[in-house]
Structure formats: structure tokens, C-alpha cells
Amino acid sequence: MSKLSRTTRIAVIATFAMASGALAQDWGEAPKVVTESATMQMLSPSVEVPGTVISRHDSRLASELAAKLVWIAEVGTEVKEGDTVARMEDFTFKIREMEAQSQIDREQARVVFLESELQRLNELLERNLSAKSQHDQTVSDLAVARSEHRIAQAQLGYAQIAMHITHIRAPFDGVVTERLRSLGERLNVADEVLRLVDPGSLEVVARAPLSTVNFIEKGDVLSISNDYRSGDAPIRTVVPFGNPQSHMFEVRLDVDADVWTVGESVRLSMPTAAAKEVLAVPRDALILRREGSSVFKVSDELVASQVNVVLGLGAGRLIEIFGDIDPGDQVIVRGAEGLSDGMQVEVVP
Hints:
This protein has 3 domains: about 5-45 and about 275-345, conserved putative lor/sdh protein from methanococcus maripaludis s2 fold, CATH 2.40.420; about 45-55 and about 200-270, Elongation Factor Tu (Ef-tu), domain 3; about 60-195, CATH 2.40.50.100. The protein is about 25% helix and about 40% strand. It contains 3 helices and 23 strands. The chain has helices at about 5-25, 90-125, 130-165, and strands spanning about 30-35, 40-45, 45-55, 60, 65-70, 80, 85-90, 165-170, 175-180, 185, 190-195, 200-210, 220-225, 230-240, 250-255, 265-270, 275-280, 285-290, 290-300, 305-315, 320-325, 330-335, 345. Strand 20 and strand 21 (about 320-325) form a beta hairpin. Helix 2 runs antiparallel to helix 3 (about 130-165). The chain starts with 5 loop residues before the first helix and ends with a strand. Residues about 10-25 have low confidence and may be disordered.
């Protein structure tokens, strides 16, 4: 068989399938088939454009201060928003926090003393037992002390922030997909530490020809597929600015995270003209031969009849046909390979 030409092999296989179907008919077993209805559909000519599945939340988390990395989450770790994914050495920042707290205590004590002193001087001044200049000096010292106390509180705030950001926290639910630094490395401000991706918030980003921009809008549903799966996805947004060099514009679609995976390549079916109502059948119903295209339709008596058709425009899994087919007719989409005109069939789900 391997020495036969491809055309000869196809002919042999087709002859065998027809013979098997005829034999089953002779034995009283009706071939099992699956059918779908021919329907009137709004279809438009389309062009396939490439796209990529990405996460809307895909971040490279970085250090916000200079310190040594002492812990980092393993690749594949699932985290919730706010969980620590990396930690840096915090000895220096603890000391700064203690120093700032001590400064606050010192300034607070000075404020308390000067308030008491001012109260005493006020009582003496009422009885003309204190100099006005001494009173004014104490008022000034108290104002300075209160200012110094507020500065110390601000310094404590900075120290507490530094302590807080020694822990790098997840800004959203996600999975650690890449470690960009290793334990013990000295980090500087803005050094990237790890990559975090949310696999539950996906979209497809694609760049389509400007010729299609007038035929799509936000909310439209487009067909997407690759070699492993297919489906439909609504348009989330159309970026209304085309690239003057490539004559392309960007479109983004929401996709189901249970079906698609970050990084997958897909194909989008983009309309290139206004939709029109046509009689359409699934592409799986077509039987393509050298002499032309045909479909098998099933009568109410479960008799299959082969109908020659002319093909029109296609969109996704549907294609327009012209021939002796009416809306509502049941056409065979599975099991038509071994059939011949007039055979009795059994329709199964």
C-alpha cells in the first residue's frame, strides 16, 4: 500500500468504506449517523489573523529597597493577593525603627516638660511674678518641641514602611512562574525578583488588518481556534488607532480560563464585509470530491439522499451552500463516508 499514490490510496479507502456500508445494509444494520440542521445564519466573509492568549495580570515584581534576598517562593507556588512571595533581610530597618521610636519618646518627654513649664509660667505671669520674655521663650521652645515630635513620628513612619516592604507581596491572586533572583543576592531598588501570572484572567490579543475595523465592535463574538481546540470569544475592546507602517490595529477578546492557557497561539476569524443572511451548514457535513461538493440529507423516513451543492462564504464552522437544501433539513455531519444515495440510516446523538 505504501507504494501506491495518494490518490489511489484515497480511492481504495473510499471504496472500502462504501463496501462496508453496503455490507452492513445487506445484513440489515442501518449505518449510524449524526445530523445537524441547515439553518439561516448571518454570515460574512472573513480572514484569519493570528493571536496570543495572555493574562491581564502578568507582573514582574521588584524590590523597593536595597537589601539581601533571604527567601523567595518556589516556581509553581499558588498565592493569594497580599501573600508574601519574597523576603529581604530586615536587621538594618528594625534598628532604624527602634531609633525612630526612641526619638519620638525623647521629643514627647520634652513636649510634656515644656507644657508643664508653660502652665507654671502662665500662673506666675498672672501674678506678675515672671518675666514676659521667659514666658515667650517657653512658648517658642514648646512649638519647636512639638514640631520635632511630628518629625520623629514621620521618621518612624518611614522606618515602618521600610520594614513592611522588606516583604514583597502578591498584588493579585496568581502563580509564581519565574524566579529572577537567587537567595543571598544583594538587591538594589527596582531589581526584578520574580514573575507572577494570574491564570484566571485571560484575554486574546491580536493585530488585525485595518480593512476589518469597520465590521467589528465591542461585544461582538468571534471564532477562535488552534490545532487543539476551538470556541467563541467576545471582543473586550478595539484599540481605535492603527499602525501606519503595518496597517494593523489591536483587538482584545475575553476567553475562558478553563479552556485556554497563557501563551497559546490562536487564530481569529475576522469579518471583512457586512454580514448577510444565508443558508448554512456545518463544514463537517461537506463531502468534497473531484467532481464537486455534496452533502447527505436525511428524510423523515431516515433515508439518506446525496445532494450536490455549491459553496459560498464561510465563517468559523459554518459555510454557505446553494442546492436542494431547505432550512430545517437534517444533514449528516458524522458517518457519511460510507453512505450511498437511498440508504437507510440510524440517527444517533
